[in-house]
Amino acid sequence: MATPDPGFSQSLERGLAILGAFSPDRPVLGISELARELGLTRSTTHRYVATLATLGYLQQDEPTRRYRLGPRVLDLGFSVLGSLELREIAAPHLRRLTDITGHTSNLAIRDDTDVILIDRVRGRAGRYHHLEFSLHVGSRLPSYCSATGKALLAFLPPPALDEVLDRIEFVQRGPRTLTSKAALRAELDHVRQTGVAVNDEELDAALRSIAAPVRSRSGEVVAAVNIAIPWSPVAMTELVGQHAPTLQATAHQIAARVV
C-alpha cells in the first residue's frame, strides 16, 4: 500500500467515506450501520456524523434517528455540474467575443473571496499583458480587484455580501487597487446600476478589464464574462462605451442557455 502524502487527512477521508456510504439503494443509514461498513467504533462514527449534520451535509430523520444526505451535498453536486455545463455553453460565445474584440476573454465563477477562471480564449498575438501568460483555466484571482470579481460580488444578497467583505484582506496589487471596504462598496453600487464592472490597473499595472454578469433563469448571477485589455491612452470610459454592449450581449447569449 502506497505511503500517504504528508498532507493526507484521515479525518477528511473518514468524513467523505461516510457521505459515500449513502446510495439510492440505501438512502437512510444509522450509526451502527455506518460504523460496521467503515470499520469504526460507534463513538467515532457518531462524532463524524454529528459534525456533518451540523454543517448540513447530513440530516437526521427524527422518528428513526437515522441519517440521510443533506442539502449541502446537493449544493456541491449542482455547483460542479453547473460549472461544467456553463463552460460548455459559454465556449463558442467566448471565442466569438475574442474574435470581435481581439482581446483575451474569460469566464469566471466565485469561490468565497476569490474568482476562478473556468474558461479563457486568448486574444491576438501582441495584445497580451504579461499577467495573462501566467493565467490558465483554474487560476484564482482576488474578487475585490478584478472585473469578474466585482461583477459577481455586486449582485450578492446584502447579508452574503457583508459576510464576504468582512473576510477580504485588501492588499495593494496594482497602482489603482481599491484598498478599503467603503471604496469597494461604492464601486459595487455602480456595477449594480450599470451592469458592467471594470478593473482599471487594480489587479496589476497596465492591465484593464471589463466584465458583465451572467444570470441563470432564476435571475441569480452565476458567472461573469470579461475581456482583458492591455493599457493604452484611451480613457476607461471610452473603452467601456466601445466594448460593454458586446460583453453584455455575450453574457445574455450565455444566460439564455443556462438553467
Radius of gyration computed on alpha carbons: 22 Å
CATH T-level fold name of the largest domain: Beta-Lactamase
User: How many independent structural domains?
Assistant: 2
Helicity range of the residues? 40-55%
| Average pLDDT over all residues | 90
Unreliable spans are: none
Q: What is the first-to-last residue Cα distance? A: 44 Å
* Level-2 CATH architecture of the largest domain: 2-Layer Sandwich
**CATH-wise, what's the superfamily of the largest domain?**
GAF domain
Arrangement of strands in the largest sheet = 5-4-3-8-7-6
Element string (H = helix, E = strand): HHHEEHEEEHHHEEEH
Counted by DSSP, the helix tally is: 8
The 3D shape can be described as elongated
Count of beta strands: 8
**What would you call the structural class?**
alpha+beta
For the largest beta-sheet, the strand count, sense and barrel status come to: 6 strands, antiparallel
The CATH class designation of the largest domain is Alpha Beta
β content, as a range?
A: 15-25%
